[in-house]
């Protein structure tokens, strides 16, 4: 018990040293959930921001993000960073890798001016043990809600000395710890609170929210929405097949075999009737390329015969008259 008290006391000393600083810098703690847009205030900024420099402090070293009001473009995440009109540092779609200590420092005539403004950024992130395709009724689901913080501070210090608390609540804000359906456990080593449950049919589109409280005041929250896959996502689509219409060649053949009348004689009427009968027969009989060609030949022969018949008769009459004249002439 005494060892635990000593650890808490030591934690308070370390935390105070980090949050106060030797130079008496002003310290701010901010809490955001992942994917939010973040604004880190620079409370010691001078007008114009041309004297403002923002640094990101990690155990591996210090990275200069803003130098005398100008954004550095050689940093890994410079596209998500911008300097506000009030000299604040803006971070778009914050990630858990953005956690840590940020320092706003002023320089006048290339000389460090005044006390630094230090901001500790904490990021809350929710993840799932299952992929989206595995989430469905009847299966077990485990959600992890983890607070990412500065590497120099332990979760025990934040929980016991600063009064941070992580809880899971439903859409109505009721603590799920009181519901026997959920198994909730907290790990102080990773500052992670997990929720495990077996999904029900009515859980589709249901929201569970992880809340971060600092001394009983809500600082931020991250929401997880249960989404069951749609049938199109679980079943492969049926293959789409296409077939050509069997009537298409028949229609083309019928169109090609249509004849244009030349005269209004009785022969034309017979030809038209023959053609119409042929066309009607083509519509009723399934056509093949060979059958179609044969029918065209037959139709052509019939047409020639019909149109040639009057000419042959006329020639026979002329020949008969000439023969009659020869017989009646005197010898």
Automatic annotation (TrEMBL):
Entry GO CC: external side of plasma membrane; membrane raft
Coiled coil feature spans: none
PROSITE patterns: IG_LIKE
Signal peptide: 1-24
Biased composition (Polar residues): 240-262
SUPFAM superfamilies listed in its UniProt record: Immunoglobulin
Keywords, alphabetical: Membrane, Signal, Transmembrane, Transmembrane helix
Pfam families in UniProt: V-set
Region (Disordered): 223-292
One GO molecular-function entry: protein tyrosine kinase binding
Domain of life where this protein originates: Eukaryota
GO process annotations (BP): interleukin-15-mediated signaling pathway; positive regulation of ERK1 and ERK2 cascade; T cell activation
Ig-like domain ranges (all copies): 25-105, 124-225
Transmembrane domains' residue ranges: 297-319
Protein name: Obscurin-like isoform X1
């Amino acid at each position: 018990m005494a060892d635990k008290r000593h650890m808490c006391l030591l934690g308070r000393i370390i935390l105070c040293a980090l949050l106060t600083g030797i130079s008496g810098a002003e310290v701010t703690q901010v809490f955001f959930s992942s994917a939010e847009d973040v604004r880190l205030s620079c409370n010691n900024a001078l007008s114009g921001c041309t004297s403002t420099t923002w640094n990101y402090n990690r155990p591996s070293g210090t990275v200069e993000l803003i130098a005398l009001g100008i954004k550095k473009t050689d940093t890994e995440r410079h596209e998500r960073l911008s300097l506000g009109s009030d000299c604040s540092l803006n971070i778009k779609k914050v990630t858990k890798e953005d956690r840590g200590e940020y320092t706003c420092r002023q320089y006048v005539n290339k000389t460090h001016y005044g006390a630094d403004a230090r901001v500790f950024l904490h990021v809350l992130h929710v993840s799932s043990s299952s992929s989206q395709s595995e989430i469905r009724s009847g299966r077990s689901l485990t959600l992890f809600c983890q607070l990412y913080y500065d590497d120099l501070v332990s979760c025990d210090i934040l929980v016991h000395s600063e009064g941070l608390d992580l809880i899971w609540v439903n859409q109505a804000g009721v603590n799920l710890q009181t519901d026997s359906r959920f198994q909730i456990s907290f790990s102080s080593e990773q500052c992670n609170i997990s929720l495990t449950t077996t999904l029900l049919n009515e859980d589709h589109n249901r929201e569970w929210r992880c809340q971060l409280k600092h001394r009983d005041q809500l600082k931020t929250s991250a929401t997880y929405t249960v989404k069951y896959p749609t049938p199109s996502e679980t079943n492969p689509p049926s293959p789409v097949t296409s077939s050509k219409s069997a009537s298409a060649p028949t229609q083309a053949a019928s169109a090609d075999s249509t004849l244009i009348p030349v005269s209004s004689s009785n022969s034309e009427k017979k030809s038209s009737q023959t053609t119409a009968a042929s066309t009607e027969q083509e519509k009723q009989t399934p056509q093949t390329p060979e059958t179609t060609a044969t029918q065209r030949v037959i139709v052509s022969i019939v047409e020639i015969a019909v149109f040639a018949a009057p000419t042959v008769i006329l020639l026979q009459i002329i020949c008969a008259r000439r023969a009659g004249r020869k017989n009646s002439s005197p010898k």
